[in-house]
Design brief:
With 133 residues, this protein is an alpha+beta fold. It has helices spanning 8-23, 53-70, 121-130; strands spanning 36-39, 75-76, 90-97, 100-107, 111-118.
């Protein structure tokens, strides 16, 4: 993964599109721009620091956060019935924690992104009502 490429905005837009696709409902109270994107597989491209322990500290912080996010059950994401991507290319999962929706994207079975989004009560209800039972 190229560390100069910033995918955060693209992931946020992908999440907004998926939520709209699922609910067919636009709600300006959803906080997509303020959502948090965490990329599991790489680290910021800093100039080489004199003290390399910085990377170890960053790695430990990120892994601790990811372990918290991964705890619990994920729900398989919805797919467009006509244009289903093979899981080897793209898949996503989601779960709820309070008013937050966490979407886990996996690209090419090796690049994982998490998007933590605060959704409005109306959108949360719509998504939960459309969940498979």
């Amino acid at each position: 993964m190229n560390p100069d490429v910033k995918l955060d905005d693209w992931i946020k837009k992908l999440s907004a599109g998926l939520i709209w696709y699922k609910t067919r409902f636009f709600d300006r109270d959803n906080r997509f721009d303020d959502s948090i994107v965490i990329e599991k597989n790489s680290y910021p491209n800093y100039e080489t620091p004199k003290d390399l322990s910085f990377f170890e500290k960053e790695y430990k912080k990120k892994m601790k956060l990811i372990n918290i996010i991964e705890n619990g059950k994920w729900i398989n994401g919805w797919n467009d019935k006509k244009n289903i991507y093979p899981e080897t290319i793209y898949t996503f999962y989601y779960k709820f924690i309070g008013k937050k929706l966490i979407i886990k994207y996996v690209f090419y079975q090796q690049f994982t992104f998490y998007n933590i989004i605060e959704l409005s009560e109306k959108t949360l209800i719509k998504i939960k009502n459309l969940e498979p039972q």
